[in-house]
Amino acid sequence: MRAHRARTTVVTAVAALTVSLLTAGGACATETRDETPDEAPTTSAPATGPGQATPPGAFSEPAGLEELSAGWSMPWGADWLPDGSALYTERDTHRVVHLAPDGTRTVIGTVPDVVHGGEGGLLGLAVSPGFATDRTLYVFHTAAGDNRIARLTWDGDTLGGYETILTGIAKASIHNGGRLAFGPDGHLYATTGDAAVPRLAQDPAALEGKILRITTDGDPAPGNPFGTPVYSLGHRNAQGLAWDDEGRLWSSELGQNTWDELNLIEPGANYGWPECEGVCGREGFTDPKETWSTAEASPSGLAYADGSLYMAALRGQRLWRIPVEGTDTGTPQAYYQGEVGRQRTVLSTPSGDALWLSTSNGPGGDAVHRVTLQ
C-alpha cells in the first residue's frame, strides 16, 4: 500500500479542450473572500438561481433543533459507525472524537503529521463501508507540504496504523476543500480546493479544484473519465458531497465574491471556475442547479434525507433545505438563521428521521445539534 502523487498525463484531446477553455474567457477578479466571517450575514430573501418551482409531493422538513453535545473546537469531518454513533474530526486539535446518540463524547486519538493553519488542518473523515470487519477510517488533512488522504484503524480502544494513500494535493491558507465520503459504488470521493491558484481548477492533470474518486488504496477508481483520480473539474472550493436516493452525486461549493453553488456532479464535467462564478451559460461548462449570494450561504457540508438536500452555511449562518425531484431542484428554504452561528457539517441519521448539525464558531464554542425531521 503506497502513498503517491497522481499527476497522470491526460489524452491530447482533453488537454486541448482545457487550453481552449482557459483562453476563451476573461481573467477572474483578484481573490478577496474565503470562508471566514468578514461581515454580518444579510437577511435578504434567498437568491435561488436557476432552480425550478418546488416539485409536487410531500417532503419532510426540520421540526425541532436541540443541542446534543457542546464544548467542541471546530468539528469538521464526520461519518456514521455501524452502531448509529458517529466519529468527528476537529480541525485544529487534530483529534478524532466519538459521539454517541445520547451526547456522550470521547476523544479516541489524534492524527499524526497534521499541520493546521488558516482553513487547513484535520478536515474530512469517512468510515469504511466494511468497518465492522476492517475497522478502518479515512481522513483528509493538511501536512507540512501538502494536503493528503490517509487511513487509520480504530479497534474501539486505540487509533493507529496511520498510512497515507494519496499525497501531493497542493495546500494553502485557503481553499483546501477537504470533504471525504464513500459513494454507493464503494469508492472514496474527495473534494479539493484550488489552493488559491485558480488556473489549477481547469487543469485536468492537477489534483486541485476537483472532485476526486479513488480506491481505498488511493489509486484512480475504475471508470474515471481521465484515467486519473479526477472525477470532475472546475471547482473553486467544494466542501459538500451527498448522494440522493437515485444515486446522483451533489456538491456544495464556496464561490468568490458573488455566487455560491449547488452542483449536480457528472463524471468528466467542468463546472467553470475560474472562467465563471455561478451560472456560466457557455458551451463546455456545466451550470449549477442553485446559486446563493455569498452572504446567504458560504456553504460547507451537505446531506440528503427524504427528498431534500440539506446544506450547512458558514457565513450565512443557516441551514438550507433544497427539495429534489430527479435532476430538478425546488425552491430553497432557510432554517435556524443566526440561532447557532456558523454551520459546518450536516449528516442525515441512518434512520433518516433526523440530522446532526455541527457548528464552526471557534475553539471550545462549537456544538453538535440534533435536527428532527417531520
TrEMBL record:
Pfam families tied to this protein: GSDH
Keywords recorded for this protein, A-Z: Signal
Domain (Glucose/Sorbosone dehydrogenase): residue spans on this chain: 74-364
Annotated signal sequence range: 1-29
SUPFAM superfamilies: Soluble quinoprotein glucose dehydrogenase
UniProt biased composition (Low complexity): 40-58
Ranges for region Disordered: 28-63
Name used for this protein in its record: Glucose/sorbosone dehydrogenase-like protein
Protein species of origin: Streptomyces xiamenensis
